[in-house]
Design brief:
By secondary structure, the chain is of the alpha+beta class. The chain contains five helices and nine strands; from the N terminus they run αβαββααβββαβββ. The protein has two domains: 34 residues; 187 residues, no CATH class. 25% of the residues lie in helices and 17% in strands. The strands form three sheets. A three-stranded antiparallel beta sheet has the order 1-2-3, covered by helices on one side. Strands 4-9-7 form a three-stranded antiparallel beta sheet, covered by helices on one side.
């Protein structure tokens, strides 16, 4: 074999090895088992966001002014094992504690389906639940009617609403949550007594609706208004 042919052969072999290496490389850093670090930013409600919220999640007569609310932008661990960006609007008094809770959940790989502001659903809590969305502030009555929900104060958070449904007698919200009524059959995204989610929120002063008797609200954490 001539020198030129020998060099050409080496080049072809190197190219084949390189191609195989590239083909075997993961499509993303998450697939390689590495996730971006948790990050969170707490901001005042901007004039633009206030305009978007008004008439949807907030309206005159709500128990808190928009000025008392904060936007939290943070990433969360998804059901696909990847990091996803999300947003919550909460009361300024609980914002830092909420960040601590979700940092803990992120590093313990608790999966959250999505975390979108209720404005994405036109302020419709039912639509948000049907989308398995995790959310916080929404100035509305309690489910079933009556007084303001604690969500109206920005001091309540619902997480993975399908995996953790609201149950009152035969009523299950969202309807897809019926698949998760057996709380002993623990699957990803479910919240059960004593787990990392309940403990993390308890440390921040939140009460879990899964401890209630009627209704039972597995998705719900709140700091009750005095």
């Amino acid at each position: 074999m001539g020198k030129r042919a020998w060099i050409s052969g080496l080049a072809m072999a190197a190219a084949a090895v390189l191609a195989g290496t590239l083909a075997a490389a993961p499509a993303s850093a998450d697939e390689a088992g590495w996730r971006p670090p948790f990050r969170a930013k707490i901001e005042r409600i901007s004039p633009e966001l206030a305009e978007e919220m008004t008439g949807v999640s907030w309206h005159p007569g709500c128990p808190v002014p928009i000025e008392d609310l904060r936007l939290i932008s943070m990433n969360h661990y998804g059901f696909d094992g990847r990091s996803h960006d999300g947003e919550l609007v909460v009361h300024k008094d609980v914002a830092k504690d909420v960040v601590k809770v979700f940092r803990h959940l992120y590093y313990h790989k608790f999966p959250i389906r999505r975390m979108e502001r209720i404005e994405h659903y036109g302020g419709d809590d039912d639509a948000s639940m049907e989308a398995d969305n995790s959310s916080s502030f929404n100035c509305r009555e309690k489910t079933g009617g009556g007084e303001f929900s604690v969500h109206s104060y920005g001091k309540a958070i619902d997480i993975n609403t399908i995996e953790n449904p609201y149950v009152s007698g035969d009523l299950v919200l969202p309807e897809a949550g019926r698949e998760y009524l057996d709380r002993d059959d623990v699957r990803p995204g479910m919240i059960v007594d004593g787990d990392i989610v309940v403990r993390a929120f308890a440390r921040a002063g939140f009460e879990w609706g899964g401890h209630w008797t009627s209704p039972i609200d597995y998705q719900h954490f709140e700091i009750p208004e005095e």
